[in-house]
Amino acid sequence: MPTNVNDIRELVTRTLDGLGLGNAKSLGEQLVCFDNCRVGVRFAFEGVSAIWLNDASLVRFDDDAGKLLRVVRLPADHAAVRKAA
C-alpha cells in the first residue's frame, strides 16, 4: 500500500512495466495544483504519463493521444492521501 510519493513512484514504475512501457524515458514530474492547492503529481514519460490524484485516491495512466491505459485505485485510507496536499 503506498504511503508517500516515493511509493507512488514505485507503483508508477511497476505499472508501466506491466503495460510493456518499462523502457519509456522519464521526462520529469510536475505538481498538479487546483485553486492554489496541490492535488497530485504528474509523472511524464515519452509516450505516456501517469497522474496521481490525491483526493480521488488513484493513479491514471494515459498515452500521449489521451487514451486511457489503466487506472490504479489506492485504498482511501493510505497515508499518502493524508500527507500530500
Instruction: State the low-pLDDT regions, or none.
Output: 80-85
The Cα radius of gyration reads 12 Å
* Helix content bin: 10-25%
Average pLDDT level: 87
Strand order of the largest sheet: 1-2-3-4-5
Oligomer: single chain
3D architecture notes:
Strand 4 and strand 5 form a beta hairpin. The protein has 85 residues and is an alpha+beta fold. The chain has a five-stranded antiparallel β-sheet with strand order 1-2-3-4-5, with helices on one face. It contains two helices and five strands.
What's the SSE blueprint?
Blueprint: H1 5-18, E1 26-34, E2 37-45, E3 48-53, E4 58-63, E5 68-73, H2 79-84
Antiparallel strand pairs: 1-2, 2-3, 3-4, 4-5
Short summary:
This protein has 85 residues and is of the alpha+beta class. The chain has helices at residues 5-18, 79-84; strands at residues 26-34, 37-45, 48-53, 58-63, 68-73.
